Amino acid sequence: MGKTVRLTMAQAVAHFLKKQMTIVDGKKVPIFGGVWAIFGHGNVAGIGEALYQVRGELPTFRAHNEQGMAHAAIAYAKASFRQRFMACTTSIGPGALNMVTAAGVAHVNRIPVLFLPGDVFANRAPDPVLQQIEDFGDGTVSANDAFRPVSRYFDRITRPEQIIAALKRAMQVLTDPLDCGPVTLSLCQDVQAEAFDYPESFFEERVWTTRRPRPDADELANAIALIKKSEKPVIIAGGGVLYSQATKELTAFAEEHRIPVVVTQAGKSAIDERHPLALGSVGVTGTSAANAIAVETDLIIAVGTRCQDFTTGSWALFQNEKLNILGLNIAAYDAAKHDGQTLVADAREGLKAVSSGLAGWKAPAALAQKAEREKQVWMEAAAKAMASTNAALPSDAQVIGAVTRSIDLEKAIGLCAAGGLPGEMHKLWPATAPGSYHMEYGFSCMGYEIAGGLGAKMAHPEKEVFVLVGDGSYMMLNSELATSVMLGLKLNIVLLDNRGYGCINRLQMATGGANFNNLLKDAHYEVMPEIDFRGHAESMGAVAVKVASIAELEKAIADSKRNDRTSVFVIDTDPLITTEAGGYWWDVAVPEVSPREQVNKARKAYVEARAAQRIS
């Protein structure tokens, strides 16, 4: 029997995590960027003491909100292209449950993060303990069972030796390009403090590298044949291109075979949008150029995307009756969506293999020529939408224009998550370098923005991170603004105040609904709030300014380059104006019966639009 070391279960967790390594840009680095922790009675004595012992090798960061710190961890992993990630620990009960929403974000977006919530006593001697959820019919249930449907792997540790197998399985999931996603290890608070003689080999350094499965020979041959018979192919690039670090291969593939590229929210920045074959965003929030090509395409080459409804216009965008779909994806589950012909492989390896098999083949020249014409039309429309204005209430697009004119896009990250801004940024933000556009739109989770900005900054401290956030999301979760100041990590936060949930108000109007309960003026309030966002941001330590125009915003951003800490720019915006060019239908069910004529008209239009949906 080999040598052992006696540690508590919590100490074993800390010592194991610090020994996990990876290779980034040729250098060996810890795979865990640190641990986010908010301590309570369920983890302060166990995991808290253990993390203190390794604080020099595995840094612990204190946050103000459990969901916020989890969003920061998710953004860190996303900005690191899943090569590195973080852990999050909380006490039991409300502290743990506050992370469940963030776990949903990580699960939908296939992002690795390790959740270490405290749990009830395994020995049950003091039950029921403070903050314990009791199930009257199942004594094994705790609040942490809420993590089960939003975790790729879940385990409850009720004996100290169980952590050996659990941590090994956790690392396999966190580093696997197919299974990648959130892992929850629920740590019973008494077991955290229990000791066990762990094998020393468990704490040996381990280097994790990216697995790159190559395509099956038959699937590859079928894919090459399918592409060769197409006349109007288009590549839809998703987040998998970035996570595979296949951006160079994507561009080379498009150039070699003369195929236009359109991008999802997660895939935006996978190709430099200045490239003549890069047509920008596709679908509901798509550019007119991308959608003009997509409507006529006879072959979708879906690379690293799960083809969600915003990408496909709820599967009504593609109108060619001869349409075929080729799914190049690490996950067969995603590759096969909507009867797609599968090519299960790593994006980088798959693109190289297909390109080699297509040697000499190019799409008809007319396709690239049409793409060039449509792109020119779109660029003119986008420039018009983002142009400076003297309007008292500028549009979101005009604010985006002001920001992008004021910064070095090569050295910046534009970040957002929810509301109307993702649609405008998807169309208009000029992404030029991989990772320069960071959007959480798989879950579209309000409150991700500021915490996510912090995580992105931790991953790339050399970059200027610009967070664009609406007043609605800001009000939901802003506490990590203070954390950014405390950590000395400067964020640039552009807060667009349209006085309510402007995006959903527009959707409400589009589906025939009355203006109700979205904008503050349409909600049931005795007093209309006048929220001083500038003063609020200053109270948390940020440098803040309220600007009255687009010109003032550009000047404020230029002046802020001298600031040494997080800077907030508040501007009032119009809740109704959106970019007219581009876009596509989105399936949002309209009531079949209503006493209101506006709803009945919207229902008629809805039924007509659904007729174009591809059902499979």
**At the fourth CATH level, what is the homologous superfamily of the largest domain?**
Thiamin diphosphate (ThDP)-binding fold, Pyr/PP domains
Q: In the residues, how many domains can be counted? A: 3
Overall CATH class of the largest domain: Alpha Beta
Report the count of strand segments. Answer: 23
Strand content: 15-25%
Distance between the termini: 57 Å
Decide which structural class fits the backbone: alpha/beta
If strands are numbered along the chain, what order do they take across the biggest sheet? 5-4-6-7-9-8
Helix content: 25-40%
Tally of alpha and pi helices: 24
CATH fold name of the largest domain: Rossmann fold
Shape: globular
What CATH architecture of the largest domain would you give? 3-Layer(aba) Sandwich
Largest sheet: 6 strands, parallel
